[in-house]
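Give me structure tokens for this 95-residue protein.
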Amino acid sequence: MSGARASVGHPTVIADGGYRGTGLVIPHRREPGQAELPAWKEEHNASHRKVRARVEHVFARMKSWKILRDCRLKGDGVHHAMLGIARLRNLALTG
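Here you go.
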């Protein structure tokens, strides 16, 4: 083993409201009849928005890459290729 998995630890996965009940980190929502969220929940949502915006920008940029546009892998091939690219990039960043 390379030790890469140990160096990454347990990553936090953020998602949107469509993933409720999955154990992923999603934004807080107001309960019915609640005027506004407590300050700490608003701060969490602001942080969540910033991180999610960065991730969405990365996905948008990847979609412009010719190598991925022209990729003809069948089934989950593109998905696995993208995961590999993302993991290699993350390893390069954590260096």
